[in-house]
Write a structure and sequence with these properties.
This protein has 434 residues and is mainly beta. The protein contains seven helices and 20 strands. This is Porin.
Amino acid sequence: MMAHWQMGRGTRMMQSTLGREALAPQQCSVAGMVLIVLLASPVCWGDDADALALADQALEPAVARSDWQIFTEGMLGHVNQRAPLDDIRISRASVDVLLDTAINPEWRFTLANRADWLGQDGQYEVVNTLKEVYVSWQAQPNAALDLGRINQRNGVALGYNPSDYFKVGALRSVVSIAPASLRENRLGVGMLRGQWVWEGGAVNAVFAPKLANQRQSAAFSPDWGASNPVSRYLLTSSVQVLPGFAPQFLLLGEQGQSPQVGMNASILAGDALTLYAEYSGGRSAALLPAAPVAWHSRLASGGTYTFANNLSLSLEYHYDGAALNQSQWRALWLNPADYWAYRSAVFNAQSLPTQQAAMSFITWRDAGFKALDLNWMLRRDLVDQSWQSWLEARYHFERMDWALQWQYQNGAPGSQYGALPQRHSLQAVVKYFF
């Protein structure tokens, strides 16, 4: 195993961990549920939203497209580490393949795979992520069955998704802390999924059986122990109650755990402002060893405002009732072994280490020049006041992207971002589309 710094067993990272977030414990669960009820409306929160569009898509003329989507990506970078650690040089070469093809009018086959060659100070290793491989049967115009490894994404929020239940243990290789990259470049879950849509509504039913006991670190392992360590089911339903009002409800059942309930909602508050909220709650244990089972609420809420010049500003608040408050977080730092074991468990769950956090994300398309995009993400832990910043400039050519990415984290020793060995990093990325 190379010397890549790792937060979770079996997960390779090119740089630092994910930023995580939250709000005030007792106030948040009540306020969050009220906000969700007020905001309930259709949005791209996962497969229910996709299913709701099936009827409309059937009326649209077919557009010719390739069954294959392939790109390669190369990266060279430099990481500045906190004293007394030396700086390190990092590199990466990646190949991403997507095949989505019709076998016949009723059957489709989908394959999505990503291979990363990770380099650090002259040492190299390969990590393959089998994101998806499944078959689909369109039994009726409004009903479908899928079988195989599927990346089932849920949630309306950008930086933290408490209702995205299948994200746990799904990261094998983290090449970017951008939220879209984390949701896309992960292991799908082996499952049987049924979808049924009607005018104004959709229902999803998922069964994901246990397939292995432990995750595997072998380069090309499908890693069923990471994606399917326990048996789970997920029921989701989206119903358009009124025009522009279609909340999504979720029910998760998991072997050895009480059911979890979730909800997603969004509303257009004017021509340029979208407000949204996401909730999950249920009886569960915190991530600390021997933590008692209790009801825990998790919330992500925020909004996105889009300006006339193609600049979008998103602000979010995140809360996790199962995470640590300020006194618990400070006490944990006094025991380094327990501290890093806890952080590893949090990273594996893609959860929050402390109860409250905030995030802003700015995207500017055609930023002064056509085809130039600027992205800036700022995460702040509201419990220990540490913060993380990620900035990207990306220029799009016809078949190629050039990007420069800078990441910086700051905070007191023992804080979420101050405890990380990396202070800042700079990466140059080239992406070529076939």
